[in-house]
Predict the structure.
Amino acid sequence: MLEFILERGNYWAIIGLMMIGLYTLFAATNLIKRLVGLSIFQTSIILFYISLSRIDGGTAPILYGKDAKGHGGGHGEEAAAAYGADAAHGAADAAHGAASHGFEHVYSNPLPHVLMLTAIVVGVATLAVGLAIVVRIREAYGTIEADEIRDMDLDVALAQYAEDHPGEANPA
C-alpha cells in the first residue's frame, strides 16, 4: 500500500495544491487572495493533465529510424496515420497504438500538452482581467475586502429602498 502511495507522489502533490487553491478561493475575503487561490487551483489542474499524458519511455512524436521508413511492421504513412488516430484517445491508447502498429519506438501524444498551453494563456488573460476588475473595485469602494464591499452595497440598497418606499418598515 505504501508503495502504491509513493509511486503516485505527483498526484498527491496535485491534490494538495488543488485543496490549497480551493480553500484560499473560498476562505479569503481579500479579492487579490481569491485570485491567487484561483490561479493555484488552475495550475494544479494543468499539472494533473500533464501528469496523465506522460508515457514512460515516450519520445517526441517525430518518426525516426525504422518507424520513419515503414519497416517497423507498419506501412509507412498508413501506420503513422493509424497511430495518430489511436493517440487521440489518450496516453494509454497511444502506447498500445504504437505497439499494435509495430513501431520500434513509443511516442508521446502532444495534444494534452498543446491544450494545457492554451489553458495557461487563457488563465493568464483571466487573471489580468480579474486584477483589472479589482483595481476598478478599489477605485469605486476604497477597499478590496469582500465583506466591506458587501456591507457598503447593503447599506446603499437599504437607503435606496427607504427612499423609494417612504413610511414602510425596513426589510432588513
About this structure: The chain has two domains: 1-54+110-172, 62-107.
